[in-house]
Design goal:
The complex is a heterodimer of chains A (about 110) and B (about 120). Chain A has about 110 residues and is mainly β. Helix content of chain A is about 0%, strand content about 50%. In chain A, strands 2, 5, 6, 10, 11 and 12 form a six-stranded mixed sheet that branches. Chain A has a four-stranded antiparallel sheet with strand order 3-9-8-7, with no helix packed on it. In chain A, strands 1-4 form a two-stranded antiparallel ribbon. In chain A, a hairpin with a 5-residue loop joins strand 7 and strand 8. The chains are: A mainly beta (about 110), B mainly beta (about 120). At the A-B interface, strand 5, strand 6 and strand 11 of A face strand 4 and strand 5 of B.
Chain lengths: ~110, ~120
């Protein structure tokens, strides 16, 4: 069965620190990859997605992610976090065939302190 | 702009009650999904639907059923609520793959319903 692993349950960073959140998936075929964010009290929203082409994708709010096929990874990065980035981040994978649902990781809670 | 709405933000029910959670999307999406979100467990898929009157079980369908009578509406039903169904329930929708072509199938989420079963 397809699975998605997010390595960190809770990450605490100071403002201006760099961020990298890990995501690995187990499916061997062609995939679509997503990072979603959930700010406190708000609904899930898309940060960025990869479906083909340049493996380095840029999303909203200065986030980017790199798809490394050989490592089955899609890590999320931001060079300098802000207090407003405090949220929960979810990696998700979908097989690029038909109407298969997204499979989500368990999420990483990011706390940014001043 | 896609909008997915859920009938209630907060709901409190008693054990054994029948519970209906409603979800409506206004973007003519074929696919609709129900997830539950629990701390440390992420989002787990309960049921999904590719079209009217169609449904597929997700990873944790036990204790739940669904109804899709109209394209824009997808209902989650707890036949007899239990305390272990206390959770945040999220609805999502997306385009059918043949309509989205090569583009990735982004799912759009509703605000969630926080259900407490006493």
């Amino acid at each position: 069965a397809q699975s998605v692993s997010q390595h960190n349950h809770h990450v605490i960073l100071s403002e201006a620190a760099s961020l990298e959140l890990g995501c690995n998936y187990s499916y061997g075929g062609t995939v679509n990859l997503f990072w979603y964010v959930q700010y406190p009290g708000q609904h899930l929203q898309l940060l960025l997605k990869y479906f083909s082409g340049d493996p380095l994708v840029k999303g909203i709010k200065g986030f980017e992610a790199e798809f490394i096929k050989s490592k089955f990874s899609f890590n999320l990065r931001k060079p300098s976090v802000q207090w407003s980035d405090t949220a929960e981040y979810f990696c998700a994978v979908m097989r690029n065939s038909g109407n298969t649902p997204l499979v989500f990781g368990k999420g990483t809670r990011l706390s940014v302190i001043a | 702009d896609v909008k997915v709405t859920q009938s209630s933000r907060y709901l409190v029910k008693r054990t054994g009650e029948k519970v209906f959670l409603e979800c409506v999307q206004d973007m003519d999406h074929e696919n609709m999904f129900w997830y539950r979100q629990d701390p440390g467990l992420g989002l787990r898929l309960i049921y999904f639907s590719y079209d009217v009157k169609m449904k597929e079980k997700g990873d944790i369908p036990e204790g739940y059923s669904v109804s899709r009578e109209k394209k824009e509406r997808f209902s989650l039903i707890l036949e007899s609520a239990s305390t272990n169904q206390t959770s945040m329930y999220l609805c999502a929708s997306s385009l059918r793959s043949i309509r989205r072509g090569l583009a990735g199938a982004e799912q759009f989420f509703g605000p969630g319903t926080r259900l407490t079963v006493l």
